[in-house]
Amino acid sequence: MTRRSEESSLPALPEEFSFIRRHFLALAGEGALGLTDDAAVFRPRPDRELVVAADAMVEGVHFLPTDPPDTIGRKLLRTNLSDMAAMDARPFGWLLTLSCPRNDGRHDDAWFAAFTAGLKQDQALFDVSLLGGDTTSTTGPLVLSLTILGDVSPGKALRRNGAQAGDGLWVTGTIGDGALGLKALLGELPDPTGWLTERYHLPRPRLGLELGNIAHAAMDVSDGLVQDTAHLARESGLGVRLDVDTVPLSDAARAVVTNDGLRELCLTGGDDYELLLAVPEEQSVQLQARCSARGVPVTRIGRFEPAGMGLKAVRRDGTSFPLSRSGWSHMGTDENFI
Questions:
Q1: Domain 168-314 superfamily per CATH
Q2: pLDDT confidence of 115, banded at 50, 70, 90?
Q3: What gap in Å lies between CA 284 and CA 85, rounded to an integer?
Q4: pLDDT tens-digit profile of 292-314?
Q5: Going by C-beta distance under 8 Å and a sequence separation of 6 or more, which residues neighbour residue 169?
Q6: What pTM, to 2 d.p., does this model score?
Q7: Domain 14-152 grouped into CATH 3.30.460.80
Q8: CB 271 within 8 A of CB 182
Q9: How, if at all, do strands 90-101 and 129-138 pair?
């Protein structure tokens, strides 16, 4: 029997592998081995430390079933890229684990073609590539889990535990657009320009700022500004004062934030994916210059204080701003640092 006839007698390609080739092979980069093996193989850059992070998104929890599939893919990648930005790392590759509802009639080839088209667009924008992953089916909702890989100069990764008393609390961009955008998508707020819903669908990871020699500590704002500020202070063994009236809002947010309830939503709603930074006073000018050079707005919104203070959210006149919650909880529990 000839080799050709032997090959023709092989079983048909399993649907899982066919699915991967149809939708994900075009995303595979160097080291992915054509997505045909059990793992990727790549050589880390010399004199760099590897940085790895992972995040999951669940349909109905982290995105709406009606969200466009291309923006779901892009948001998944961008939220992980934001973790790289928070550690001042350079991303280069990613892994995807996909658990898709079995025969639900919605997540068909057309849906995944749009999903991967969005990923391809952002791969080119952020210079990263797919290295591998896993696919499976589920009786529950669509679950997407992405692992991002990057590198950083040895000892230069920004962490959450380095803030010092007296450091300024700074944040990039604007706060509250994502949470307000979700309200707009649910029909609970107007969004005539589409700015708020666009910010909900597509976060802007603040990569490439190179703040390792400027900031003492950093993290990205994903679970709400108040809660993540408390995380930064807690990990550094400090208290923190948050000056509520200085928190930057976009023009679209200002147009709809007409009461303290909506302002609290901006402070606690999450989905901002901006950088929260602890910066010593002597580095504040350099911070602003570095961010300005990259076209990224940055605003001082408070100050780290000695331990024992907790978090105080105050207005411009010094009175406390009432907070009924601190932010999003992944485990369904309440934070208690305020």
A1: PurM-like C-terminal domain (3.90.650.10)
A2: very high
A3: 19
A4: 999 999 999 999 999 888 899 99
A5: 229, 232, 240, 241, 242, 276, 277, 278, 300, 301, 302, 303, 304
A6: 0.87
A7: no
A8: yes
A9: parallel
pLDDT top residue among 8 and 92: 92
The CATH 3.30.1330.10 domain(s) of the chain lie at: 14-152
Q: Supply φ then ψ for residue 113, to 5 degrees.
A: -65, -40
List, by residue range, all CATH 3.90.650.10 domains of the chain: 168-314
pLDDT in tens, 157-191: 999 999 999 999 999 999 999 999 999 999 999 99
